Structures are given as C-alpha cells and as structure tokens.
C-alpha cells in the first residue's frame, strides 16, 4: 500500500525533563562526568534539536531503499558534528515476517 516503517533513536539528550529523574544535587555531581563521556560516545546528543537528526534524515530518504531491520541513531561526534548511524537490530527475520503476516490477517478482518 506504499506504507513504510522505520525505527529511529534520538540518542541521550539532556533537557529539563531529564533533570526530574534524579535530585538536582546529584545532577551537579554527574554533569562533569557526562560531558567527559560525551566526547567518547556518539549517542550522547548535546543539543536538544540534534535529537531530530535521524528523523529528519529518514524523512529525506526514499523509503523503498531503506533496510527495515535497521535502527537509525542520532549521533554526535566528539567535535560536535551531528550524524545518523544505521545499526542492525537484533531481530529474527522469520519471526518478523510471521508477525507481519498476522498483522495483514488482522487488517483483513
């Protein structure tokens, strides 16, 4: 029917919603460590708007050329450059196909 589905991951984003998870004093202790770690891990997205990189990138692609078994991650390099990294999902293709067929059956009902 021309419908496509893809999985995206915005990465870890520090926002005002994140601060409600732990007490403020604990964040003050953790933030220097988080910023040091952010230079060595690509999934820590520093700016909240960068979290949409994978969604925007995906929107610009031709869906028929995308791999349905890949998750597209918003990432940031150590120098702050935003990019999208595709990672293969740990999915059993036979089970996925069986699930899809059952969804088609449900749709017919």
Automatic annotation (TrEMBL):
<keyword id="KW-0812">Transmembrane</keyword>
<keyword id="KW-1133">Transmembrane helix</keyword>
<keyword id="KW-0472">Membrane</keyword>
<dbReference type="InterPro" id="IPR052834">
    <property type="entry name" value="3KSR/17beta-HSD"/>
</dbReference>
<dbReference type="GO" id="GO:0006695">
    <property type="term" value="P:cholesterol biosynthetic process"/>
</dbReference>
<protein>
    <submittedName>
        <fullName>DHB7 reductase</fullName>
    </submittedName>
</protein>
<dbReference type="GO" id="GO:0047024">
    <property type="term" value="F:5-alpha-androstane-3-beta,17-beta-diol dehydrogenase (NADP+) activity"/>
</dbReference>
<dbReference type="GO" id="GO:0004303">
    <property type="term" value="F:estradiol 17-beta-dehydrogenase [NAD(P)+] activity"/>
</dbReference>
<dbReference type="GO" id="GO:0000253">
    <property type="term" value="F:3-beta-hydroxysteroid 3-dehydrogenase (NADP+) activity"/>
</dbReference>
<feature type="transmembrane region" description="Helical">
    <location>
        <begin position="24"/>
        <end position="45"/>
    </location>
</feature>
<dbReference type="GO" id="GO:0005789">
    <property type="term" value="C:endoplasmic reticulum membrane"/>
</dbReference>
């Amino acid at each position: 029917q021309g419908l496509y589905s893809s999985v995206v991951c915005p990465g870890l984003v520090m926002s005002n919603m994140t601060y409600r998870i732990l007490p403020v004093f604990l964040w003050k202790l953790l933030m220097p460590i988080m910023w040091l770690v952010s230079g060595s891990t690509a999934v820590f997205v520093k700016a909240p708007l960068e979290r949409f990189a994978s969604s925007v990138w995906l929107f610009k692609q031709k869906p028929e050329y995308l791999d349905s078994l890949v998750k597209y991650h918003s990432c940031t390099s150590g120098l702050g450059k935003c990019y999208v990294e595709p990672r293969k999902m740990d999915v059993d293709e036979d089970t996925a196909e069986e699930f899809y067929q059952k969804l088609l059956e449900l749709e017919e009902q």
